[in-house]
Design goal:
Blueprint: E1 32-36, E2 42-47, E3 53-55, E4 68-71, H1 75-78, E5 87-92, H2 97-100, E6 108-112, E7 115-116, H3 120-124, E8 135-142, E9 145-152, E10 179-184, E11 196-198, E12 204-213, E13 216-221, H4 222-237, E14 253-254, E15 261-265, E16 270-272, E17 277-280, E18 287-290, E19 298-304, E20 309-319, E21 323-329, E22 332-338, E23 345-354, E24 359-366, E25 375-384, H5 385-394, H6 403-436, H7 440-450
Parallel strand pairs: 14-19
Antiparallel strand pairs: 1-2, 1-11, 3-10, 4-5, 5-6, 6-7, 6-8, 8-9, 10-13, 11-12, 12-13, 15-25, 16-19, 17-18, 19-24, 20-23, 20-25, 21-22, 21-24
């Protein structure tokens, strides 16, 4: 139910008691309401702050954006713009639809969805009527050439979290368009939306749907939730269900090369999410994966491990804003910090051990909600660590090929030697202490017995 931002999921769980949204009366103005957390524990207590309130389009909806910064043209620039009306592009976000369409600094935006870009406000107006991930038609001037392209709009990297300036509270991505809602002042975090709301007698009166402001939470009345559930169940009975979204379907299986490496790049993987997009470098046409400014951005590959053993995972990456990334290697989860950098480099994620030769998925996803574009990704490099160690045993000079790895192993060996030396010292001290604690009388007695 996109209108109410609700969905029914099939889980297979049967040993629970479902909540019944069967109490129609709504709380009155000033009535206490309790937001319920896990295990039916109270999450927050608040009071209904308004009577009948309709959540429309002006109460802080999270807005989509194009991925460009615009400014008014100077008089000199205006003379070269057809009709003299347009907005100058002052910056383009890497990985955005604008960057993918070839828009660069200095281009002129003329129209967006047919609306003349007379001011930055008028240019942004048609974008606000779209949700992140949708397409808009943009007419712009590029190197004197007039172009019209369809661009994907994004969720703002800073507005995406919708931080309330007054208190720093993280608000819901969507906080509008629900129609009639119950507004209350319970402090419920955005990630805890979807829980039931009960009155002072424990009756379920609604369901929290959005953290709309620092001191404002919206809940759907129980009767609206029940009507939505009944309508969705009727669609399920009619066979109108969404199939499981498996991003790995149709992906090619990446094989290991004879040198012991598997290289996962843009061409043999799949990128999903509101901001992820393929970026083409102007100099050499190399394909990179940009964006990474949304928690739902993800990239996935399928790789075949030739043998059981140890595998090193590395990212070929350039940090933009930087941040933490989750890397799933089959069932193993590894997290790595991507630092901002000026160029590409190999960033080691970690080592995984596979007990069998198998085909598995490699998935990358930002950890948490990025504040800005996190990185540019060239790909993932997987190295057969056991094969490398066998080669190094035969030819130790190979260890110098990866100096960082050699340095780590050298430091590990030094620590091992220090521990061994500490153990030997402890043994020596224990022997010395045992000798000092021996009883002199017993020794003298033995010496007397040994005399002729």
């Amino acid at each position: 139910d996109s209108a109410l931002d609700l969905a029914i999921l099939e889980t297979g769980i049967t040993d629970v008691t479902p909540i019944a949204f069967d109490f129609d009366p709504e709380p009155e103005l000033g009535d206490a309401v309790i937001s319920v957390g896990r295990g039916m524990a109270p999450l927050a207590l608040g009071f209904r702050g308004l009577g009948v309130y309709v959540s429309g389009g002006s109460d802080g909806a999270s807005r989509a954006y194009l991925g460009v910064a615009m400014r008014q043209p100077t008089d000199e620039e205006r003379a070269s713009i057809p009709g003299g009306v347009g907005q100058i592009v002052s910056a383009v976000m890497p990985g955005s639809g604008a960057a993918e369409a070839g828009m660069v600094d200095g281009d002129v935006i003329l129209r967006i969805d047919g609306v003349v870009a007379a001011t930055p406000e008028s240019a942004a107006s048609p974008i606000r009527s779209h949700a992140p991930g949708e397409q808009v038609s943009v007419e712009f001037m590029h190197s004197g050439e007039r172009r019209t392209v369809s661009m994907r709009i994004l969720r703002p990297p800073f507005g995406e979290q919708r931080v309330a300036l007054a208190g720093g509270a993280i608000l819901s991505r969507r906080a509008t368009g629900f129609g009639e809602v119950i507004q209350h002042d319970s402090i419920v975090a955005a990630q805890n939306m979807g829980g039931p709301v009960v009155d002072s007698r424990g009756r379920v009166v609604g369901l929290n749907i959005a953290r709309a402001d620092r001191m404002k939470t919206y809940a759907l009345a129980a009767k609206r939730v029940r009507a939505s559930i009944e309508a969705m169940l009727a669609r399920v009975q009619a066979g109108d269900v969404m199939p499981p979204d498996d991003p790995s379907v149709g992906l090619p299986v990446v094989e290991f090369a004879p040198d012991g490496f598997a290289r996962l790049g843009v061409s043999n993987g799949r990128a999903l999410g509101p901001t992820n997009a393929v970026v083409t470098k102007e100099k050499d046409g190399e394909k990179l994966l940009g964006g990474w400014s949304d928690a739902d951005d993800v990239a996935v590959w399928k790789v075949r491990l030739p043998v059981a053993g140890r595998y090193d995972v590395l990212l070929d990456v350039q940090g933009v804003g930087g941040g933490k990334v989750d890397v799933f290697f089959g069932d193993d989860l590894m997290t790595v910090q991507v630092p901002p950098s000026r160029d590409f480099g190999l960033l080691r994620v970690g080592e995984s051990v596979s007990s069998v030769a198998e085909e598995l998925l490699v998935r990358i996803q930002p950890l948490g909600r990025p504040q800005a574009p996190l990185m540019l990704l060239r790909g993932v490099v997987i190295q057969r660590t056991d094969q490398l160690r066998m080669a190094e045993a035969a030819l130790p000079i190979l260890r110098w090929k990866d100096f960082e790895r050699f340095k780590r192993e050298w430091m590990r060996e030094e620590r091992r030697k220090e521990r061994e030396a500490a153990r030997e010292k402890m043994k020596s001290e224990m022997k010395t202490g045992a000798g000092a604690n021996a009883q002199p009388g017993a020794v003298n007695s033995n010496q007397e017995q040994d005399r002729p």
